[in-house]
What does this fold into?
Amino acid sequence: MAQWEKALARMLNDTNPNGYTYDEAARVLFNLGFTLAAASSGSHRRWARRAAGVTVVIGLIEKGHGHLKPYLIRDLISQLKTNGLVPSHILKP
Amino acid sequence: MTWTTEQKIAYLLRQPWTIFAETTPEGDRLLRIKELPSAVASGEDDDALIADFWESLTVTLEAYFAVGTNPPLPANAQSYPWERSMPVATVAQAISIRQGVQRVYSGFTAGSFQLPVAAVNDQKLDLCAVA
It folds into this structure.
């Protein structure tokens, strides 16, 4: 399993996801077909994926150091699950 | 009128989005937009939260347009104004197309109004929507 897949698997099962960096989350999204679609002058980043007429936009915060807030990882996982974007082999226990 | 991305974003920023507040288990104060799941703002005080809200909403809207799609609409909106804009004809052309249609429009001054052709053909002309 690739590093990004391991990170995604950890995120999926993490009840307190407070130890993930922006780079880890961005790598997961990149490997799932997302691109960095917009970046504010501040720290907001939006990763987007458009496929089969459905656009999914996921928000991250890039501060250049430290870990992402847990709600960002929860939102990321929620969006991936809602849109069926978690690879089946990672969903399996 | 052709809408630029900046104009579309400016228009959408003024729309009545469904906004709700949340406090996470970790104590982070958030503002979310129901129609735009990725538009989430955080801040330690009200001023920071509100500033972050506008930044979050703006960059979220930019992301949708960057990948070539419209963002979801606010709950009470039905269509995008830039998609209602259509090729225009002169009043004379529009009246000619509408021969037989009984509805009377007041306020026409030949040469000063332009009507959406497609709307005329569909007989759904709404003067309020005429630019």
Chain A touches chain B at residues 18, 35, 37-40, 42, 44-50, 55, 57-59, 69-72, 75, 78-79 (CB under 8 Å).
